[in-house]
Amino acid sequence: MFNNLTTPVVFAGALVAATGVASAGGYTVPVVAEPVIAPVAAPVADWAGAYGGLSAGYVFGGDDRVGIHDPSDALLATPGSADLSGATYGVHLGYRWQREFRGRQIVYGPELAYEGSSADDSFDTGSASAESQLDNLIALRFKTGILNEAQNTMFYGIIGAMRGEFDYQVEGAGMDYDDSFDTNAWTVGLGVERMINDRVSVFGEWEYRDFGRTTLTDAAGYSTEATPEHHVVKMGVNFSF
């Protein structure tokens, strides 16, 4: 009789002991660590390096009031204005560096350009006439820009110097001048350039050019001051090397 009760009693005791151990320590769910994925930095568009390009533009907003002075520098007449307007075309070479500044990409560098032109203007009052034409110019510009968030578009400013060649003619009030002259200018402007792919981009620009005052004197000593300042808008394409 005693032996028949031994097995159930032992089993019950073991079950109670196991339950007590589980209750005392509690059940801990195993923690599975999530894999750590390092953030992937967005690629930086590369605008740095050498490039060349072509442009076409239009000159407008000229301001060149013609005055005629006698050999003693007395003003004889102000018959009109020869305010330049017309087409331009050009080629250019440049180099750009690229740096990060406060989380944004900055692009900057020099550009050397040659520009031909058919921009001109003339007038004839019957008693006096004048004609001015921009033949060509060579420019050295420095451009500094900032990229947008996508880094495919650059907004930039322009500052530079140039030397232009002009044909100039003034006749009337005793003056007879017909010659060409060279003069220097400073220029400022704004532009935007957009990448089409890694090698090709397109741009649009506005520039203001101030050539100052150049005194032109004919053989008899009569003189005038040429002031061929003007604005220009341009569109073009750049090719990265």
Automatic annotation (TrEMBL):
Every Outer membrane protein beta-barrel domain range: 40-241
Alphabetized UniProt keyword annotations: Membrane, Signal
Domain of life the protein comes from: Bacteria
Primary location class: membrane
Signal peptide coordinates: 1-24
Location of this chain's protein in the cell: Membrane
Name of the protein: Outer membrane immunogenic protein
Family: Belongs to the Omp25/RopB family.
SUPFAM superfamilies: OMPA-like
NCBIfam families linked: autotrans_barl (TIGR01414)
GO cellular component, one term: outer membrane
Gene source species: Paracoccus seriniphilus
